[in-house]
Specification:
- There is one protein chain.
- The protein folds into 3 domains: about 5-160, 2-Layer Sandwich (Beta-Lactamase), CATH 3.30.450; about 165-235; about 245-395, Heat Shock Protein 90 (2-Layer Sandwich).
- About 45% of the residues lie in helices and about 25% in strands.
- The chain has helices spanning about 10-30, 40-45, 55-65, 80-90, 90-95, 100-105, 110-120, 170-205, 210-235, 245-255, 260-265, 285-300, 340-345, 365-375; strands at about 5, 65-70, 75-80, 125-130, 135-150, 150-160, 245, 265-270, 280, 305-320, 325-335, 375-385, 385-395.
- The strands form 3 sheets. Strands 1-4-5-6-2-3 form a 6-stranded antiparallel beta sheet, sandwiched between helices. A 5-stranded mixed beta sheet has the order 8-10-11-13-12. The protein has a two-stranded antiparallel sheet with strand order 7-9.
- β5 (about 135-150) and β6 (about 150-160) form a beta hairpin.
- α8 (about 170-205) runs antiparallel to α9 (about 210-235).
- The chain is elongated, with a radius of gyration of 27 Å.
Length: about 400
């Protein structure tokens, strides 16, 4: 639910932003500037005290975590900071000069409020709004009128993304701690489990009694099942051994393993591979298990048949990381199954969270950790009764 509040007084942040944007606006009107329209030139040496003379206002505004967007009176975007470029995965050149609806054609919440803010000269705030930037994100936002010489010349939009628990840095730290503990426990259980299985096998061979064999066989089956679960836990704990790997070869291994379940479920398989993709730095065994986890989930969600589509391509998205362009290999696994509810979608990567009766809740948590350990990330899109697509982004073996 979105909650709106009206504010006649501007917050300290908005006052600062108004000051900054005004100075930027002023600098562009100064024809005597060394660099016409240069924000850093005019603002970095603005006479606001000896310390501020040495500070670039560009650096300050671009250090904010919030996305900051300035609109003129016609609601055209005239400025966006670095955090905004990173959030929207678009450059300033692709954004400025356009209206919000030209960038997000399905955006119907913020656009009308921009006009309202400019028309009425009032600040507005919204909480828990959904913005679709290729995938839906939950945001809080604030809108304030932008004044120049006591006249409203536009509006300032500030956006803060509400991060899911599985995307938080402290979650990654807690998960790594839990993984370490899990590995220690699994190792301690695995040793005596081998002894229990061995004793049951000896007992079965020593006493050829059908009534007793029924129980010894049960013990052996259950120890094998527990051993398989423990092995999964121990696999999670191992640090990936990275070397050049072909992403298509690993995916084909996963599809070979899942071939019989796919046929039994009546699922048609479609591959859309980009053969020009270079190798990535990866751990073949871990990536194989990560792909298997997602494909198994897809098969289980299409019990009455369906379509499984595997595609690979270079990602359209890129970011500047330490002065270099960082790009990814994109692996998408799409099914036409029952989909995932919006409520469950926020929890699917949590360790031990599962809606399956026989599930351990570790598969997708493991998959996310594998992709993260490879320097990548995962995005998920899903609609109930229509299907789900997992987008796995992993960096090329080099940047550029």
């Amino acid at each position: 639910m979105i909650h709106f509040t009206h504010h006649n007084r501007q917050s300290a942040l908005n006052v600062f932003l108004d000051t900054y944007i005004f100075l930027q606006y002023f600098s562009k009107q100064k024809t005597t500037a060394t660099k016409k329209g240069s924000v850093s030139h005019m603002l970095g040496y603005y006479p606001c005290g000896p310390y501020l003379k040495m500070i670039s206002f560009d650096a300050i505004i671009n250090s904010l975590k919030e996305t900051i967007i300035l609109f003129d009176k016609k609601t055209t975007i005239t400025y966006i900071n670095k955090s905004g470029e990173e959030l929207l995965r678009k450059s300033s050149k692709d954004i400025t000069g356009k209206k919000l609806l030209q960038i997000f054609d399905s955006e119907k919440t913020i656009s009308p409020l921009i006009k309202k803010t400019i028309r009425e000269g009032r600040s507005l705030r919204g909480k828990s709004a959904v913005l679709n930037i290729g995938h839906p994100i939950n945001i809080d936002f604030s809108l304030s009128p932008f004044f120049v010489n006591s006249r409203i010349e536009g509006a300032i939009l500030s956006i803060s993304e509400n991060i899911n628990i599985t995307d938080r840095e402290d979650y990654d730290y807690d998960f790594d701690s839990a993984v370490y503990l899990l590995g220690t426990i699994a190792h301690e259980i695995k040793n005596p489990l081998g002894g229990i299985k061995g004793a049951a096998q000896l007992l079965r061979n020593a006493v050829p009694d059908k009534s007793i064999n029924e129980y010894t066989n049960l013990i052996i089956r259950e120890t094998d099942r527990l051993n398989s679960i423990l092995q999964d836990y121990l696999t999670i704990c191992k640090t990936p051994a990275l070397h050049p790997v072909n992403i298509h070869e690993i995916m084909e291994q996963a599809l070979t393993i899942m071939n019989i379940p796919l046929i039994k479920a009546g699922i048609t398989l479609h591959r859309i591979y980009d053969p020009s993709l270079p190798n990535i730095q990866g751990d073949e065994a871990k990536l194989l298990q990560a792909f298997l986890n997602i494909i198994k989930n897809a098969v289980e969600s299409m019990k009455k048949g369906g379509r499984l589509e595997i595609s690979t391509s270079p990602s359209k998205e890129s970011v500047i990381d330490h002065g270099k362009i960082k790009r990814w290999v994109l692996v998408s696994i799409k099914d036409t199954g029952r989909g995932i509810s919006e409520k469950d979608l926020k929890k699917i990567f949590l360790p031990f969270y599962t809606r399956k009766k026989s599930g351990t809740g570790i598969g997708l948590a493991f998959t996310k950790k594998v992709v993260k350990d490879h320097g990548g990330f995962i995005r998920v899109e899903s609609q109930e009764n229509k299907g789900t697509v997992f987008h796995l982004y992993m960096p090329f073996g080099h940047n550029g």
